[in-house]
Design brief:
The protein is of the alpha/beta class and 223 residues long. Helix 4 links the parallel strand 1 and strand 2. The longest helix is centred in the first third of the chain and has 16 residues.
């Protein structure tokens, strides 16, 4: 049996026991596929991991950069109290429309909203609203802009907040210091920022599973 088949089988076993999709999550995946959205979202195990992080954090406000079909948004929003708030930023209007419907069907439209447009335009507008600091930021958008997203996350959080950056391993390509590929350049810059910024303490974890070989970075905002 190949390594990737083992990964798939283990993911299937763990997800069936620890993070099974319910009707709302299954519908979100189904409608996203029917709408032709790329199949690049988090897995159910990763969604449950994000939810647990938010719950451990006691999060009352979450910022998500990159909505896609709203699958991860649903997992995160379910960690919030009834008066919590989740703001998700999505570049693609079609994706945002699918996500908005999925979020509403899950009964979470009172706590979660999707804002459409380039995140680097939406983030200054969000900052102008002077929102309460976000307790958790999940970054899963275009990788070239990852360092900019981390910088904005720092501006919109507080000491003790968590920042999660998804897809940082890039199938192992992240080690290529000479790469000119935008996703690698952006990811390496984000890792360097986390490593050197005096207000961040972070780590990165490699993962394998049904979505292949990748990983995420996790950083805590310091005082």
């Amino acid at each position: 049996m190949s390594g990737s088949q083992h990964w798939d089988d283990v993911d299937t076993y763990f997800s069936s026991r620890l993070s099974p999709d319910d009707d709302a999550l299954e519908a979100a995946l189904r409608d996203s596929e029917a709408a032709g959205l790329p199949q690049i979202g988090v897995t159910s195990l990763q969604g449950k991991f994000l939810q647990l992080l938010a719950q451990i954090q006691g999060a009352r406000s979450i910022l998500e950069i990159g909505t896609l079909g709203g699958y991860s948004t649903i997992w995160l929003a379910r960690a919030l109290p009834a008066d919590g708030r989740l703001v998700s930023l999505e570049y693609n209007a079609k994706h945002a429309d699918v996500a908005t419907r999925n979020i509403a069907r899950a009964g979470l439209d009172r706590v979660a909203e999707v804002r459409v447009g380039p995140a680097l335009e939406s983030l200054p507008k969000l900052a102008d609203e002077n929102p309460a600091p976000f307790d958790l930021v999940f970054i899963d958008a275009d990788k070239a802009n990852n360092p900019h997203y981390v910088e904005w996350a720092l501006r919109l959080t507080r000491a003790g907040s968590l920042i999660v950056v998804d897809n940082v391993v890039r199938g192992g390509r992240v080690v290529d210091a000479g790469s000119a590929e935008p996703d690698i350049v952006g990811t390496r810059a984000a890792i360097e920022l986390i490593a050197t910024h005096p207000r961040l303490s972070g780590t990165a974890i490699q993962t394998v599973g049904s979505k292949g070989y990748d990983g995420f970075a996790l950083a805590r905002v310091l005082a």
